[in-house]
Specification:
single chain, alpha+beta, Beta-Lactamase, six-stranded antiparallel sheet, 14 helices
Length: about 375
């Protein structure tokens, strides 16, 4: 295989490893093979997780040379490596290296004497590539160094893509985890009104198929007319269409839609917001353009009792009275459920009014209902 083909083959392996991290050792092996190296190490670091991979090195040797003691021993050597592509004998002579403790205790058992180093660094990230040969082999030639330089931009690009993808995946996972804890259904749609994400509550609503479901890659309402209104609202929110649409109420960029349910339950209430200006593309998914918040008006919302009690310093009994009131119980119901006299309930309620600084049962119900527990 000629040099150009070897570089191309190594580059293809590197780019494949961006999408499939388990391919990094094989990609490094291809780079080592392209210059007839004995073994190699790749270490990349940035604001996210580091990548450490190796080729043609026994795992026991890897464990031995990456202990804290070994890293401390090799630190003076690695500090001398300049940015760029260079052979070891250009900054440490063969004689000095052969006498060093670093060589005799760390590199010699790996059969690594001659080495070529590629080092890149900036304010945000760095990476080092080290390829070694046995002492009895020839040192790396100028032609082989040129081949490493030819691989360098491909390696830098692959590592930069890996870093960006890692950040996107972390962002996407964090967003998904947050949205999954909401009691309201949340669906994110792309420019073609297709759902690209649905939180846990939305998935339950879609699975029930009572007023809103999905068919293939499209959101479907109960009737064709309602489905068309929904699609028009989503396309409008995504920036693909402008103008008012029948059956859709509008408040600035926000749109609201009611979807009737075959079960006879209260309609689903949809609030549709444009989010395409936020540039939320992540994890390789199409960029979401619109967010749909789905509310079931007749579904009771669980209240986080601990949050209510801690926020307003309510006693256990005061919190029970407040939560039952928020659930729609009147004073007689509360008294019966808790086994208390109605005057005792009134006393507890008076204390709750004082601690929450509200002055009516309606205001207290609205306040307590704001402590909806995260959706499980």
């Amino acid at each position: 295989m000629d040099h150009a083909r070897a570089v191309l083959a190594a580059a293809e392996r590197l780019y494949a490893a961006v999408a499939m991290p388990e391919l990094w050792p094989g990609a490094l092996d291809a780079v080592v093979d392209s210059i007839r190296g004995g073994h190699g190490f790749l270490h990349a670091g940035a604001a996210g997780p580091t990548l450490v991979t190796h080729a043609r090195v026994d795992e026991r040797d890897v464990a031995r040379v990456t202990t804290p003691e070994a890293l401390l021993m090799s630190e003076p050597f690695h500090r001398r490596i300049p940015i760029g592509v260079i052979t070891r004998n250009e900054f440490v002579s063969d004689a000095d290296f052969a006498r060093s403790r670093c060589y005799n205790e760390l590199f010699r058992p790996l059969h690594g004497f001659h080495s070529v180093h590629l080092y890149q660094a900036n304010a945000a990230s760095f990476f080092t590539l080290t390829i070694c040969r046995d002492r009895h082999a020839d040192n790396f030639s100028a032609e082989e160094l040129a081949q490493v330089r030819a691989v360098e931009p491909h390696l830098a690009t692959a590592l930069a893509l890996r870093h960006r993808l890692g950040i996107a995946e972390q962002w996407s996972h964090g967003l998904a985890s947050t949205l999954d804890r909401l009691d309201t259904g949340v669906i994110l749609t792309d420019a073609a009104a297709r759902p690209v994400f649905a939180n846990a509550r939305a998935r339950q609503i879609l699975s029930a198929g009572d007023g809103l479901s999905h068919q293939g890659d499209a959101l479907i309402a109960t009737t064709p007319v309602a489905t068309q209104r929904l699609r028009q609202a989503l396309m409008c929110a995504s920036g693909a269409r402008n103008g008012a649409h029948d059956g859709v109420s509008r408040n600035g960029g926000e749109q609201q839609l009611r979807l009737e349910r075959p079960s006879g339950r209260a309609p689903l209430l949809l609030t549709i917001l444009p989010i395409w200006r936020l540039d939320l593309a992540a994890g390789g998914l199409p960029a979401p353009r619109a967010a749909v918040f789905v509310t079931e008006a007749d579904t009771p919302r669980a209240i986080d009792r601990s949050a209510v009690a801690d926020t307003f310093r309510l006693t256990r009994r005061e919190a029970e009275v407040a939560l039952l009131l928020a659930a729609g119980c009147d004073l007689a119901d509360i008294a019966a459920r808790l086994g208390l006299g109605i005057n005792t309930v009134r006393t507890h309620l008076k204390r709750v009014f004082h601690k929450t600084d509200v002055h009516s049962q309606t205001a207290l119900m609205a306040l307590i209902r704001g402590f909806a527990a995260p959706f499980e």
